[in-house]
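Hi Q.,

Before the meeting this afternoon, I wanted you to have the NDP prediction in hand. No need to reply - just skim if you have a minute. The sequence and ligand are here:
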Amino acid sequence: MQLIDGKAIAQRINEQTRAAVAELKAKGITPGLAVVVVGDDPASHAYVRSKERTAADLGMHSVKIEMPAATTQQQLLAEVHRLNADSAIHGILVQSPPPKHIDERAIVEALDPRKDVDGFHPVNVAKVAMGDPDAFVPCTPLGCQRLLMESGIETAGANVVVLGRSMIVGKPMAFLLMNKGRGGDATVTVAHSRTKNLAAVCAQADILIAAIGQPEFVKANFVREGAVVIDVGINRVADPTSPKGSKLVGDVAFAEVAPKCRAITPVPGGVGPMTIAMLMHNTVLAAQRAGK
Ligand code: NDP
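Predicted structure with the ligand bound:
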């Protein structure tokens, strides 16, 4: 069984990004990333800190904008418009989820698609569906695809089951894998909460990608002997044996599934670090495109 080391692969990709940043800087362009966080959700702040830190570490211009929970829709839209017009900023990300009174869709639609490094704007969603190389691809599915490619796992002709159909992970993942070309050309099934005989459907997969947000839901009977399993899930569960009282687990019951796999990602240290690496990659791409 091969343990897919997302942390090591992400570090390698970050080094490539660092070199690309240096190259752009030599041409007078410093890639700029603005991360906006509204409210005081601790998990959101932790994600934003690590994105900001990584961008700065790779030599980018990195801006964090913290707005209070009482921020209105108009104020947030005004901030997005300001960043759209700021030529020092090439990528904008509004950390999800915003407070409940904010219409997240309207915020995403207000982003300049050329700065939408999360790949959530409808223009980018359509481009991903069309297999357009100019798309900004959502970072988590892009990271999963890179993990497969970097680990030498062939997707062409493979039966892939994507478990989950969200706009952030499941749907774009399915498009990437079914699109033509390297890292694609797979036969893709998308499963979700209404799928019949879920375990049997998943057990058909050569490659199973789990993104449902249900701790350790995917058991050994979901997985064919010799399959590759990519676990996107990040779930915090109680753990009385840990000093923190909790731990992170994926959507896959790792201990019983791993022995059946040809390759599997751990949680943490699998898909998570790749998501941030792909955000950095997308920001450099945005700066390169703006410089043309
Ligand atoms: P969503 O809640 O938006 O979507 C979950 C999907 O899973 C839905 O399509 C839902 O089906 C399906 N689902 C939920 N429960 C079941 C079930 N019991 N059986 C079958 N299908 C089910 O989640 P996200 O896609 O945003 O995230 C999924 C997981 O990935 C979470 O654990 C999240 O924390 C993690 N994540 C990790 C990232 C990373 O960087 N590693 C980034 C983004 C997410 P239906 O549509 O029918 O309701």
